[in-house]
Design brief:
191 residues, alpha/beta, 7-stranded mixed sheet
Length: 191
């Protein structure tokens, strides 16, 4: 209840607008893109709390050290040790199998700058867990943010990425100059 009140206050005071399709009703992988600012985290919480979505999100394990750990976990964080990233897929599949309804937020363009390609882990998790993808976005040009369509990935990486690219084609992120085009290294023929 408190989270919904905080979210309502945020959207009432924010120059940004929430423009969203309905929240997914089953475990889903939510793509958070373009990820260009620390504000994306605030938007993610405000969207989820307003729509009543229980969030889980992946963060580098160092964010969970010390006093920050309990706070990050309370906000839905799942630490990822980059030395063993494959374990994350197993952990998420287990959460979904237990029947927990949640949105797993993944930022496939990685950190807020410096990458040239998206990472494909979001797709591997969705396919392995049988979870649909929900396309979350931030768009500075329209000052809107929210959740786009939810759909089941086909397993055909190129076809699924074409659908994702079409949705994000006009989404700029908070800092448009830091936007990473939705393209995977695998699509360029490099492993």
């Amino acid at each position: 209840m408190l989270r919904r009140l905080l979210a309502r206050a945020f959207w009432a005071c924010s120059p940004w607008s929430l423009s969203s399709e309905p929240a997914p009703s089953r475990p889903s992988v939510i793509i958070g893109a373009p990820h260009t600012s620390n504000w994306d985290f605030v938007f993610m919480l405000a969207i989820a709390w307003r729509l009543g979505v229980r969030l889980r999100w992946l963060g580098k394990h160092t964010l969970f050290h010390g006093w920050r750990g309990p706070i990050m976990r309370a906000l839905g964080g799942i630490p990822v040790d980059r030395a063993d990233p494959a374990r994350v897929v197993d952990d998420v599949v287990e959460l979904a199998r237990r029947g927990e309804v949640f949105g797993l937020v993944v930022t496939p363009d990685g950190t807020r700058s410096g990458n040239t390609h998206w990472k494909s882990g979001f797709h591997r998790i969705a396919v392995a867990a049988g979870m649909p993808l929900t396309l979350g976005y931030v768009d500075r040009t329209t000052m809107t943010t929210g959740l786009g369509p939810t759909w089941q990935p086909s397993g055909d990486l190129t076809a699924d990425m074409d659908r994702i690219r079409a949705f994000y084609a006009d989404k700029s992120g908070f800092h448009p100059g830091r936007r990473v085009e939705p393209r995977l290294r695998e699509e360029d023929g490099r492993a």
